[in-house]
Structures are given as C-alpha cells and as structure tokens.
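User: Sequence recovery, please. Input:
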C-alpha cells in the first residue's frame, strides 16, 4: 500500500463519496448546538441526529463528513493502548432513507480495494456480520470477499433501548504476523477477544428495525425508512497507511511529540507521558477554539481535568513551568489545512491555556507533596475519601488525578466517601454566613477576648505570632484540626465596608494552614478561619503570613473603582447622590445609591467614560489617618448610618475623598479599565450599579450580550422563514438590516446590542405585517377555490371546508368576504395545522348558531371553543374525526329552519 498523509486520506474520502452523490457536511463544533443531552459531540452521527429522527429534512439524503469528536469515558486508557484518544476524527457516510445495505457494502468495498482509491489488498481485509444477517454476508461474498474472511458474531447488532436498531458489519485490517507473536490472533478475533493483529477500521450500521421492550429481536418490526450510519476513525486509518506501530506514531501526533521532546529534553520512545500530553492538547485546543472554556462544572471541568493531567505528566518529564501553551501551535500547524479557523483562534487558545496552567501549577506541587505524604503514612494501601477531599478542597487537586496517581502505584481511594464530603461542603457553604455571624457576635469566648490585634496595610508577606486559638467551647492552647485563630499582627483583611476578606496561607515550623475567611470579632480583632493542612498549631507559634496577592490586587481595583464611581455620579448626575451600600471582590463591584431622579443609559455611559478618564490620568491614591472632625471639615464622604471612631482613615483619589478602612490600588493606572455592566432600580429611590474591571471585562460582557444576540439570531431566522414563505407564494419582499457583531468592551456596547435587538424586532414585525397584508390581498383577489365549496343545504346557503396551514387572521378575512358574497348563510372552516391539531372558524348570518357549532366540533376533537351566534372560533388537539365533524356541520345546515 502507498503511504498516505492524514490530509491525503481526508481528501480521498470526500472525493469518493462526493462522486457517489453524497453531500459533504462540514464538521460541527465540538460544543453541541441546541442539544443539551451531550457535553461534547462524541460521534460522527451526533450532529446529524435531526435528520435521522425526522425533525429536519436534509438537502441531500446522502451525506458524508469527517467529524471532530471528544470522548473522555475511558481517559485512563490514553497512552496505555495504541488507539485510545480523547479527541479524534470520525469519517462517515450516511443514508437517510436512500440507499441501504447492499449499496453501503458496495461503497465500502470499492473505496477500500479499488486501485483508483485506497487500493488495499482484499486479502488483508476481514469483516464481521451479525450471525443472522445472511444478506450482508452474501453481499460481501458477491463483492469479492473470501467467505473465510467473513466472521459472524452475535454481538454485531447495534441497539440502544427502544427505537431504531439493526445489524452492523465491522471491517478489520490485518496488520500481519509481527502483531501476532503467539499465532492465535485469528482465533481471538473470532471470539471477539482483545488482540493487536486485526484492527477495526470501519463500522457500517444498517438501521432497519424498531426495537421494543419485551419483544424478541427476531420479531422486531422493520422501519418504514431504513438508514445507513457508518464510522471510520481517521487516526486508525493513518496508522494503517503510514505503517505506524500506534496512532501516536502517525503524522497527526508526531510533530506535537517532537516538540514535547525538545521541551522535555528527552527522547520519545513510546512513553505514556508524551502520548497523554499530545492527545490532551489536541482536545484542549479544538475545544477552546470551538467555544468551550475552563470551568468547575460540565464540559469546562472536563477541559480542566485534561489540562491538569497533562501538567502532572509534564512534571514527570521534568517540565516544571507552563509548557502546554507552547504546543498549541503544533496542533494548529498539523490541522490548519482541514480546519483553517484554528489559525485565527491560536492566540486566544494559547493565552487561555497559559493562564490555566499558571493557576494549576500554584497548587499542584503542594498537592502532590501532600498526596505522597499520605501514601507514605498508609499501612493498608488505601487513602481515605476525606483525605482525597482535602486535596481537592485545599489544593484544587481533582479526585480523578488522585485516583489515577494511586492506581499507578497500586493504591485505592473511596469515591463514595469523597462524594459525602463534597455534599457536606455544599451544605456548609450555605450555612457559612450564619456560622460566621454566630462566632463573631454571639460567642461568649470572643466577647471576653480583649487582646489587641493589628491589621497591617500594604504587605503581602509578614512574620507574626499566634495569640489565641478558638474552639466552639473556649480558648484552647493548640489544635490539630480546623479552627479559628487570632494573630497579633495580620495582613489578612477582615470582611467589612463591603470588601470581602482576604485568603492565603499561614506557615509555621510545626504546621501549615489555609486562611479561608477573616472577620472582625466583637472587640475588633481579626479572627481567621483556617483549614489545617499539616501538623499542630499552638498559641505562641511563630507564623509567616502569605496573602493571595493576585486576589487582593483584583479586589483593590474594584474597591478603588467604587470610590470613583460614587464621585462620578455626584459630579455628573446629582450632588445629592449618597451611597446606600457596596460590595467588592476579586471579580466584580456593586454600588447602591439613593437618587430621586431617573437613571438612563446615556447617564451611565457618561459616568463610565468619566471614570476611565480618571484611570488614564494615572492618579496617585493616598491614605491618611486623622481625627474624624478634621475629615468632615475636609469634606470626606461617610456612609450614612455607619459608626466611626474618633480617628478615621481617609482615602483620596483625585478630588474624591471618603472615609474607608479598605485596601486600594496605589495608582489608578493599575485598574486598566472599568466597564459598567448593569443598573437597576431597587425601589424607594435606590439604584444598584454593577461593573467589572481589567481582564474580567470581556468575559463578563460577552455573557451579558449573549441573550440579546441569541434573540437577534432568532428574529433573523424568523425573517428568513417569512421571506422563504413569501417567495414560495410569489410575493416579493425585501428585508435589509445592518447589524454589527463586535466584542463588547464597555457599557456602550451593551446599549448598542439592546438597541440593536429592538431595531431588528421592529424590522421583523414590519416585515411580518407587510407580508400578511400582501398575502391577504393576494388571497382575497382569488377566492374561486372557496366559491367552489358553496352549496345549498335545503335552503341554507353555506360554505363548509377543510383547509391546511392557513394563518388564522387570513382565514377570518376570507370568511368575512365569503359571507358577504353569500348574503344570508353560514361559513365554516376547519384549519389543519402542521402538528395535526385543528382550528375552527364559523361566521353566520342565518339561524344556525356559530357558537354552538364550534363548541360541538371542538369537543369532538378533544379541544374547546365557542363564541356568539354570529362568530365563533375554537381548536382541537387532533384531526382524526375531521370527516365526521364536517358531516356534522353540513347536517346542521340541512336541518336548519
């Protein structure tokens, strides 16, 4: 066989099937569209389900694709076997009610064996068929397959619950004796046992039956429309045509692996680590490029797990710094001919990957060290679910990584116990606020604790001393579990003034602890809620405090922005505006204020621009401690209702001056930029503005504009449907809207997308209105089809008629016109809709009561309706009894006096 690159194989696949009448379908994004049943597109047929279930009719009943897929159910096998990948491409050909089994087998045989195409020696091919599928077996023989190369198996029947099912035929390639050292591969193959010589390269599913629970397979009814669904793994074909030992030695993986070799400084000789990293970076690159992102739930969690597995394996190769982002370019270079959009997405993917790597590396080393300590201490080869949970909760170490690491060394861990602790954490988080309040204000121990505690501004590391340790029952001398502590000097800000508390680490000679929360006790000391990671903490211990610097910095940006927001509102909107509350953390800012007037978008945009101008001026932020009377004389703003001591801290940002104990940036340039994201009335002249700063702007605003953009897309699709319907009816309409689709960076962009939605909505309404007007005019100009149904029912002139898919308002107009022509008489329409429900309309100018007629008809079709003697309308859930209903109406007219 000739050597073929992955692109050669792709091109040949499409060339063959397009020459046989198949329409090429481009690969769908990995993130499913309008399908919440899947995390990822995981099979070639997945994005085509709408065609197979009949909900959408394809332009062509013959289709072919090469579909990107992700599967992670057997992730632990990646790098262990020769053919497992999380990301792969599935080549397929499909028939939706067109050709069936014989043609599918003919296509497969021709494509594989013809010298014009892949030119595989037929003696190297084997096929399996369903034991009772003589038709498939005979067809393979007639094509040229030797009967001893056809293996019947009971397992060759594709069936998942009730619904379409059928036999399948798998095609295998014989890799030769070098993959059969024991000489028993063929016997294993016939038993459907694992072996390496005969490799499956293509599966053809013949969907011809309808399975039903409780019915024997032999008695399944045949489907009225039979389908073909096939799948051939591109990676396996590359392995065959490039005579590679495994998929990882093909041109899909080798450029990536060679770069990993350079980064690791070690040669690849089949090590699992190289394979895992190369596989996972392919999945990560395509998933991010297709719209997924790193998160703690759903597909985002899957991505995070893939990256963290890769980083851990990278560390085993000696790569201690971020490296995954460096091999994104190799994936792009390998795949750009088939997927050109990757070139444009590359910078975004690289930036996203490196940020995620940095995040994980911060905690990975400590987590691995702790896990090894747990292993060393274990006497029974197990790690408790509680310890696994602590690794996850403290170090961000996913359970799957813990489980995989332990499996490699023959240890076990309880997933059930881990899950129990996860549920407990969720419950505790809900109770956290209440617990904190109880500790701070109702705990007698804290009420009696009077030792001083100093908060130190501007530092991110500090050496200090443990002054006290608190339990629920009192002050204790030491603790070997989670507890609350007081420190004589602390850099951890306690939640107050709308600013969240700091988090970080406490490290002593005999302990290590994580600061989860800080609040002020009844006597003003900073009380630290800590999770003990290691050792025992004792009163008097020397401790080094290490703040989560990045989190603090982001919070400071938002806090300083709130000060500038209040100042801007007072300067631009009203000097009477007063703060009514605020909240700032590392992700967002919120500001509540009183104002008797009305806020609008123009005011908000002006305020946003004003703050950004302050940021650009690079104003130095200063703080000064002074007597409260002096602060008031200077005009410093204070929060109404807040209690202040005799000595206060004043924060100055330009001409803005506020009493504030929180932490702030040193210079406004650190903020970068602010974007207001919303403004809403909370009632009683109180408004709430929310916003974001720095690198949080784009993602936050994108989330906010998405619902508007989704609505715009729906409206444009509706307009398209109207135009198509009008064109089919010979009605000429024009629809031209000018919209932009730029990334949002400010409140102005939010205003724009809101206005854009309103604009498109108005245009679509106008289009619909114009269409209905023209359609009505056209219909009313040609009513002969309705006139033909006018009859004399024993002296009562009537029109009784069933119609299909008519607009209800148009039908009313037709009824009016026809009744005017009749004069004294009766008009009745039964309008059958696409979902087989039915509408009824009746108009009467004679003795026949329209309301009673419609009510009776609706009841006969499991619906309801009625009206006056002269006009009525109603509906039914089905049109099964339509003939009887029409007969009933005509009889009523005949019997009328």
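Assistant: Recovered sequence (897 residues):
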């Amino acid at each position: 066989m000739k050597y073929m690159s992955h692109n050669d194989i792709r091109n040949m696949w499409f060339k063959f099937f397009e020459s046989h009448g198949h329409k090429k379908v481009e690969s769908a994004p990995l993130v499913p569209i309008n399908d919440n049943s899947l995390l990822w597109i995981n099979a070639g047929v997945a994005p085509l389900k709408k065609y197979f279930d009949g909900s959408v009719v394809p332009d062509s009943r013959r289709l072919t694709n090469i579909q990107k897929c992700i599967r992670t159910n057997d992730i632990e096998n990646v790098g262990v076997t020769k053919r497992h990948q999380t990301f792969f491409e599935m080549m397929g050909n499909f028939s939706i009610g067109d050709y069936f089994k014989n043609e599918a087998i003919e296509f497969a045989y021709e494509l594989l064996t013809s010298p014009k195409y892949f030119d595989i020696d037929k003696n190297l091919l084997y096929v399996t068929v369903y034991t009772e599928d003589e038709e498939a077996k005979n067809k393979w023989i007639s094509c040229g397959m030797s009967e001893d190369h056809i293996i019947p198996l009971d397992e060759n029947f594709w069936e998942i619950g009730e619904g379409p099912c059928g036999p399948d035929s798998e095609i295998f390639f014989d890799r030769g004796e070098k993959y059969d050292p024991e000489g028993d591969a063929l016997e294993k193959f016939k038993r459907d046992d694992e072996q390496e010589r005969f490799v499956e390269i293509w599966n053809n599913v013949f969907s011809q039956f309808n399975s039903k629970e409780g019915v024997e397979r032999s008695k399944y009814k045949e489907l009225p429309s039979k389908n073909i669904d096939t799948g051939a793994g591109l990676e396996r074909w590359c392995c065959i045509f490039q005579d590679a030992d495994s998929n990882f030695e093909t041109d899909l993986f080798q450029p990536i692996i060679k770069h990993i070799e350079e980064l690791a400084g070690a040669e690849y000789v089949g090590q699992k680590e190289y394979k895992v990293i190369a596989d996972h970076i392919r999945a990560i690159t395509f998933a991010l490029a297709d719209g997924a992102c790193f998160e703690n739930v759903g597909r985002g969690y899957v991505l995070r797990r893939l990256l963290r597995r890769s980083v851990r394996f990278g560390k085993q190769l000696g790569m201690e710094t971020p490296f995954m982002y460096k091999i994104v370019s190799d994936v792009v270079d390998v795949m750009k001919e088939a997927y050109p959009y990757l070139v444009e997405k590359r910078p975004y993917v690289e930036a996203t990957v490196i940020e995620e790597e940095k995040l994980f590396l911060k905690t990975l080393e400590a987590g691995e060290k702790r896990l090894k300590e747990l292993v060393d201490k274990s006497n029974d080869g197990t790690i408790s679910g509680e310890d696994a949970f602590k690794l996850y909760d403290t170090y961000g170490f996913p359970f799957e990584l813990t489980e995989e690491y332990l499996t490699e060394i023959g240890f076990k861990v309880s997933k059930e116990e881990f899950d129990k602790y996860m549920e407990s954490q969720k419950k505790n988080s809900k109770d956290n606020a209440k617990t904190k309040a109880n500790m701070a204000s109702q705990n007698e121990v804290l009420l009696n604790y009077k030792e001083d505690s100093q908060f130190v501004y501007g530092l991110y590391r500090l050496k200090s001393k443990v002054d006290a340790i608190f339990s629920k029952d009192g002050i204790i001398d030491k603790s070997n579990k989670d507890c609350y502590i007081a420190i004589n000097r602390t850099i951890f800000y306690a939640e107050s003034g709308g600013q969240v508390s700091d988090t970080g680490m406490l490290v002593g000679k005999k302990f290590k602890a994580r600061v989860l929360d800080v609040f002020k006790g009844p006597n003003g000391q900073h009380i630290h809620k800590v999770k003990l990671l290691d050792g025992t903490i004792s009163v008097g211990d020397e401790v080094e405090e290490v703040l989560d610097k990045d989190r603090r910095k982001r919070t400071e940006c938002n806090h300083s922005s709130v000060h500038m927001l209040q100042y801007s509102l007072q300067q631009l909107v009203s000097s009477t505006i007063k703060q009514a509350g605020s909240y700032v953390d590392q992700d967002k800012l919120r500001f509540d204020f009183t104002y008797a007037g009305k806020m609008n978008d123009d005011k908000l945009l002006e305020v946003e621009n004003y703050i950004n101008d302050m940021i650009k001026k690079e104003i130095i932020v200063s703080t000064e401690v002074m007597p409260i009377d002096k602060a008031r004389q200077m005009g410093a703003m204070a929060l109404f209702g807040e209690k202040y001591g005799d000595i206060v801290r004043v924060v100055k940002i330009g001409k803005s001056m506020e009493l504030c104990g929180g932490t702030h940036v040193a210079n406004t340039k650190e903020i970068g930029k602010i974007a207001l994201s919303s403004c809403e009335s909370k009632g009683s002249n109180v408004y709430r503005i929310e916003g974001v700063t720095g690198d949080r702007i784009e993602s936050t605003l994108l989330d906010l504009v998405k619902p508007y953009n989704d609505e715009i897309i729906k409206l444009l699709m509706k307009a398209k449907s109207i135009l198509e319907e009008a064109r089919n009816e010979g009605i000429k309409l024009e629809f031209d809207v000018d919209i932009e689709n730029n990334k949002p960076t400010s409140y102005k962009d939010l205003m724009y997308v809101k206005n854009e939605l309103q604009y498109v909505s108005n245009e679509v309404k106008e289009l619909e209105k114009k269409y209905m007007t023209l359609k009505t005019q056209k219909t009313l100009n040609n009513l002969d089809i309705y006139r033909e149904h006018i009859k004399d029912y024993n002296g009562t002139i009537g029109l009784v008629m069933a119609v299909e898919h008519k607009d209800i308002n148009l039908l009313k107009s037709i009824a009016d016109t026809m009744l005017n022509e009749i004069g004294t008489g009766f008009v009745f329409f039964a309008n059958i809709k696409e979902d087989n429900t039915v509408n009824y309309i009746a108009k009467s100018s004679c003795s026949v009561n329209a309301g009673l007629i419609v009510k009776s008809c609706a009841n006969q079709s499991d619906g309801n309706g009625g009206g006056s003697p002269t006009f009525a309308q109603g509906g039914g859930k089905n049109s099964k009894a339509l003939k009887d209903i029409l007969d009933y109406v005509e009889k009523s007219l005949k019997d009328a006096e």
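The longest strand covers residues 198-211.
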